[in-house]
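Thread title: Can someone regenerate the structure for this chain?

I was given the following input by a collaborator and told the matching structure tokens would be attached. They weren't. Posting the sequence so someone can regenerate them.
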Amino acid sequence: MPRGTVSLYNRSLHDRIFSFDDIMSDFPTDIFTEPSGIDVNTLANLGPLRPMAGVWEGRRGLDVKPKADGPRKQAFVERIELQPIDPVTNGPQLFYGLRYHTHITKPEQVKTYHEQVGYWLWEPATGTVIHTLAIPRGQIAMASGTASADAKHFELVARRESEHFGIRSNPFLDHAFHTVEFRIKVTINDDGTWGYEEDTVMMIRGQPDPFHHTDRNLLAKVAEPTPNPLAR
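Best answer:
Regenerated them for you:
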């Protein structure tokens, strides 16, 4: 490591630079050696994601979506399962995380309105939270932000132009509904519930101004999480 450089994996959260793109030069020289003595109990090491582990339902979701005649509001019902995975390493980098599946319908309907899979990841060494998502419309995104381990509020962002935390869409979506930014704010409540607010910013073909496609919901726990395989 160059003289005077502080390793990304040895900084305090307070002193750390909070832009991933700006700290690449601080990565350790040894990119292969994995951490030793890793605690395999993911539920004990999820930082701000720990209150989100389990199975949740929300019955007061609201989606504001684009239509030819303007924005349209749609209520929805959501079930999301977030289960702990075994610790993951990329050489010296260590993640704890939750694998999730979200299934959404309109009230009193069976047909899927929205479905989404991905991971919520916590990197203790850097205080980084990562949210990956894939939807069956041919679209993926990876958003990131920073938080303290006991944070009750945190926000993650993905941008189309970002090399690391970006958005990719199939050619038609990119042509017709060009997504330029995705943002999610999470709030952990004292009563055991948690909620989110999402803002997906898109440029719709033929419209001069960005459209803010928003979603929000409040989720209540219906089942506890299952410990990750190494912790059982």
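DSSP finds one helix and eleven strands in the chain.
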